[in-house]
Amino acid sequence: MEDLERILKSHPFLAELAPEHLSFVVGCAKNLRFRPGEYLMREGDREDQLYLIRHGTVTIEMPGANGDPICLETIGSGDVLGVSCLTEAAAHLDCRARDTVVAIALDNACLHRKMDEDPRLGYAISMRLLERTYERLTRARLQRLDVYR
Amino acid sequence: MTANPYVPEMLAIDRAVREIDGVVTFTLTPPGGFRFAPGQFNMLYVHGIGEVAISISGDPAEPAHLVHTVRSVGTVTRAMTALGQGSVLGVRGPYGSAWPVDAVRGRDVLVIAGGLGLAPLRPAILHLLANRSSYGRITILYGARSPAELLFRDELQRWRGRFDCRVEVIVDHAGHDWYGAIGVVTQLLDGVAVDQGDAALVCGPEIMMRFVARALEQRGVPRDGIWISMERNMKCGVGLCGHCQLAGSFVCKDGPVFRYDRMAPLMQVREL
Amino acid sequence: MAQTVRGILSEDLLPGVHGAWRRSDAIVAHVQAIGSSVVLDRAGLGALLAALKDAGHELVGPAVRDGAIVLGPLDGIDDLPRGVGDEQGPGHYRLRQRGDDALFGYAAPPQSWKRELLVPRTELVQIRRSAGGVSVTPTPLPERKVAFIGARACEIAAIEVQDRVLRDGPHPDADYAARRAQVFVLAVHCGSPAGTCFCVSMDTGPRARSGFDLAATELVGGGEHRFVVEVGSEAGARVLAQVGSRATAADDLAAAAAVTETAAARMGRTMPAAGLRDALMANLEHPRWDDVAARCLGCANCTMVCPTCFCTTVEDTTDLSGEVATRARRWDSCFTAEYAYVHGGSVRPTLRARYRQWLTHKLATWHDQFGTSGCVGCGRCIAWCPVGIDLTEEVAAIRAPGAAPTTPKAATIPPPMSGGPPGAPTGS
Q1: Which residues of B touch A73 (CB under 8 A)?
Q2: In this complex, do C411 and B238 lie within 8 Å of one another by their Cβ atoms?
Q3: ipTM exceeding the 0.95 mark
Q4: Are C350 and C342 in contact (CB under 8 A)?
Q5: Left (φ > 0), alpha (ψ -120 to 50) or beta: where does B139 sit?
Q6: Of C105, C127, C103, which Cα lies nearest the Cα of C49?
Q7: CB B58 within 8 A of CB B94
Q8: Average pLDDT, integer, range B163-173
């Protein structure tokens, strides 16, 4: 448990989170390992985990016209997956490990409960998710501009 | 009497190498060599067709060869990229300002390029690597449209193979044969250490440079630690013809390399 | 002050001494000190023009042509627009009979002396490709001594503005510099400003303070038709020494001063110059730019008639065989679509942006670039705008009191740092 707390603390998503919040959140966390090609999340699934990626590369994919998946983006160490975990939305993309991926999974229901119990923790986590969402949006906009054409 | 600044020196092309689709690197051998500072450009002339401003992409330590990398985007560059060995190009220059490779000695240097923007940065990279001990960490971040449009791919691999600099590449779109990162160049900043004392040399489309500068600022790099290279229409290259004006600056003689704190306010005004 | 001309004359200094002083012992020609003045009658002015011709100058000056005052080649004094004045307003220019014999009784004519120095089109170089290789033949620089007859103070100011841009930088325009070096300026101080004039606001006139070899004030109406001529250079003194003149009397000088004082009081327009740069740069998003863009036709007339607008482009052409390529420099305008073209499109696609570029360059960023305003207050852009756009009115609207700055706060634009030499790193 202490180990997991140390790992959580070292992930940029939770950097500078108050120590009492960290030990509170650690109860929702487990360390996971994905083999290359394994899905972290599938289109249509309810997002029941928030993944904090520690090592490896995750491809974010959508099925293409001929069935071949199109990779929209790769994310890696320090990124998070499942930024919409606070909403009721189902995943709209496939997320797959390209190589061996090590991630902390935070159980959504557990996280929700703790955020409700301690609104200050709720605020801290919400703000972090909002920042990540905004970052993702900015990247998507730049990518969409196709500036190197 | 004053020399006519519009008269090019006509030089035969020694080598024309197709880099990627629509992009050709020309090597010329000017008698007496050609000294320039990384970031400077020449006006290149195609017989009877016209002239365009092209950054020098060669090695500043090798003045015997004059190298430009040209992308076919308009009438003149289309004609130019069709030229081969033995054809003649007109050259006048070098003009404009340079990447501050001497001023940033001792600092960690981030070189951030997008698309063809790697070409004007190549002389600066070669200078940094040739004077490796004069700099702190050297990090090269490069974003391109797709794996097929990665410029200087062999050289990127060679630089990556050195043990004294870091090279990260990302593409906007890729198929399954690409095992590298997909996304935008600002994403690469997440994976590298960025410090407020870093010097960042940034070149690419104006929008990309703005996104990169903002991402650098968010990570603590002040505007006066960032340099960008601007592109505007140029006819004379020496501040006589007026075309490249950007508020009080002539991009040809005050630029093309500007410190970002000078350019950021201008970039806030549309169609300036 | 004056020494007799015989004292300094030598054959090589003055190969063609004009006959006037030799024929008449009654009128003695003197070499005048710079800053001093003499009086010429109309015949004396005619003799002065003849002397300039004899010294090898082509005379270029005003004549009536196509219902306008046009600057062009002159044979002599008889070509000057005698008794002709003008009336000018927004989109308006008419000649009128003055009812006197004034030879310089008009305001700024449609075209300025820019045509003579930054010529509308000039070949720069020929590049010939043949089996034997490539040969490059720069166009020989012009050898042409020209005397500008009747240049106004505002126009001399404009020439000095262009000198800074085209001649005084590290890469001078060779053609301009060559032409400029061979010009003799016979200025005529302005006594007849038009409704479009505001040289007083721009501090360029109506009296020329420098930049001339000789400067005349024409005195017409009330007494003898005469010219009080001030010496501005040794070249001016040498030419003046060849024509008969008389010494100035106190009332000549007083009358001459009154001419420009009266003119200064009759400016048709004003454009307060204090704080103008900052006011414009603080209003780059002012709604007035949309307003003026709705009227502007983008015809580029203002840039063509402006005596300081210096933008040029280079035309590349070949002969039919494709062997001989020519590069030519010709006037361009920031109002054209191609002007700011970077692959993919113009960086200023709208007329709003183009008008703003023209006006803010002229009145604001010119200071940053060259340390002066780019406007001399000649009013040509007002008269020759087909829809009568008046820059003084646009500026007044943008500077209307009480309005908050419109430039985005993050875009507050400081003057650029004084640039180092080309090639120097921009940062430190």
Answers
A1: 182-183, 187
A2: no
A3: no
A4: no
A5: beta
A6: C103
A7: no
A8: 95
